[in-house]
Amino acid sequence: xxxxxxxxxxxxxxxxxxxxxxxxxxxxxxxxxxxxxxxxxxxxxxxxxxxxxxxxxxxxxxxxxxxxxxxxxxxxxxxxxxxxxxxxxxxxxxxxxxxxxxxxxxxxxxxxxxxxxxxxxxxxxxxxxxxxxxxxxxxxxxxxxxxxxxxxxxxxxxxxxxxxxxxxxxxxxxxxxxxxxxxxxxxxxxxxxxxxxxxxxxxxxxxxxxxxxxxxxxxxxxxxxxxxxxxxxxxxxxxxxxxxxxxxxxxxxxxxxxxxxxxxxxxxxxxxxxxxxxxxxxxxxxxxxxxxxxxxxxxxxxxxxxxxxxx
Amino acid sequence: xxxxxxxxxxxxxxxxxxxxxxxxxxxxxxxxxxxxxxxxxxxxxxxxxxxxxxxxxxxxxxxxxxxxxxxxxxxxxxxxxxxxxxxxxxxxxxxx
Lengths: 311, 96
Description:
The complex is a heterodimer of chains A (about 300) and B (about 100).
Chain A: E1 10-14, H1 16-21, E2 31-32, H2 33-45, H3 51-57, E3 58-62, H4 71-82, H5 100-127, H6 131-146, E4 150-152, E5 157-159, H7 164-171, H8 173-190, H9 199-223, H10 228-255, H11 261-297
Antiparallel strand pairs in A: 1-2, 1-3, 4-5
Helix pairs in contact in A: 2-3, 2-11, 5-8, 5-9, 6-7, 6-8, 7-8, 7-9, 7-10, 8-9, 9-10, 10-11
Chain B: H1 4-19, H2 21-25, H3 31-42, H4 59-82, E1 87-88, E2 94-95
Antiparallel strand pairs in B: 1-2
């Protein structure tokens, strides 16, 4: 609600052999021990090399000074991940990556959300005269934001925010699915981003998961009494992370083969961390900044905010 | 000055990428292709060419420019509809 009333220390070092094998494009991050093991297991499951080869990629070294892995050390490792160059992922799944059965399934999952969003547009446009311009503005913004590559120094690659967190706050998760679908279709058709066969999966990750998580986090945060700025920040951040987590799930489900789904999912999710951890925080600030601007300039636009209430 | 701080931070993030030490070793390629496709290849599902392949030479730059211009125009148009410029009254106060 936009309402003032509710106010052994073990590390894993990438070896040159790993770089030579090209699994991480030659720049491999320093990872926590569990990550190295997960990577090794997954590589075995994928049948792309022996365990020996996997351990060559993430050679385990023991540091004698300290032992055990604590939460603080885990957090320090996560922070460290952000400070080292490593290639990463983005949310768009390219053409042909998903088998046809999975492509059809994700289309089937996405379609009811799109239909519900379209019905929502008709209903809310009749109630509120300025709602269509707002949807137009948000749609254009989602399109631009989701094809805007941002260089992430900590990862050495470019990735993009999704913009669905702020969209879900402003126009609702149903309509966010619609505008994300349009943006993703245009990108798949003309910008060589994503694909037609993978469009359903991309809609589910960005348009459905990103939107609903953003909306849910914002609503929950406001009901818990958090200030709107903090709620918007959390919504933007978690919507970004949810998008990439769902992409990991989609990829792992389709590509794990005979190997473990959980391992594959964890591995992909972990690979997202160096890029999406900082980018999610950036998206959180973007979301909060946009909401702050609207609240200052035209607070009446926030009357239809899904979390309810006037600014 | 306060409102410029987030803009400066954002610009700093953008610029620090290509200027950083890690940037010299990095490829700055789009993350879509860097690893999703790499994983897919390992699993025997390489990405194939898009149905309309604009990723040829500078054609992709052109379509991105076009998309940016059209998207920017649409965003600007609706922004002006929703947030008309503020007018100054005779007494110096502003109204939307």
